[in-house]
Write a structure and sequence with these properties.
There is one protein chain. By secondary structure, this protein is an alpha+beta fold. It has one domain. 38% of the residues lie in helices and 17% in strands. The chain has helices spanning 33-39, 47-62, 120-123, 125-128, 155-173, 186-198, 212-222, 224-240; strands at residues 66-71, 76-82, 106-112, 132-139, 144-149, 202-207. It has a six-stranded mixed beta sheet. It is globular, with a radius of gyration of 18 Å.
Length: 242
Amino acid sequence: MRAGCSLRGKSVSEEHALESGKGPRGALPRHMVMQVKKSEGGGDATLDGIAKAYVLVEGRRTGHEHLYAYERNEQKVIFRHTDHLDDKVWIPEDFHPRLLNRSDFVVLHHNHPNGSSFSATDLRIFSHFAGIKLIFAHGHDDSSYQAEIRQRGNLDRALDAVQGMASDWYRSNAHPLVACHNDTAWLTTHIMCLILHAADIIDYRFDGNAECRPRYDFAGLLGTAFISASATQLRTTLRSGK
């Protein structure tokens, strides 16, 4: 999921977006109704359930990343979108102004075909758009991740620092772990998010599938002391302003 200057000039077509107030609240395209009911065991009527079902059904069908955004206070869908790529999806520029209101509680759902956790690029979305408070990533392997922003002003500096911490730990300690995703960076991104959570930069939650969850839990246990020390170091760095 991407945002930034490179989005300038990008337009969004009606088939890729659902603006607030257009059509039934949170409604899915007709061709997806039976697929969602089948995949969700009858379907979750909440917008979170609908959004998750949408990005997973469409993602598994196409192999691409899809994005679904809604505003929680008003319970209105903002847009649905895909760039037809398997490793990223951009927030359409047409909707940038809609995502800047600090009083809004915008929720983003998107899918990760490889099942990995949030990348630093995913999390930097919080820095670009003050209205976005919560993001979800849903893996095609049934893993699921969510991050809610706690310290927006410190996020970019925290990410700059923590990426190196997580990579160093992975290179030194993670070789006994067998990655359960095709993407070998799965553990690095997970450890990065655990450090940010421990430092209260984000509220991070995850639910791995039956195969991955034990490895995720073991990685968290194996890295407990490192995560705590890194979070302390990160808080000190942020307070110092360096």
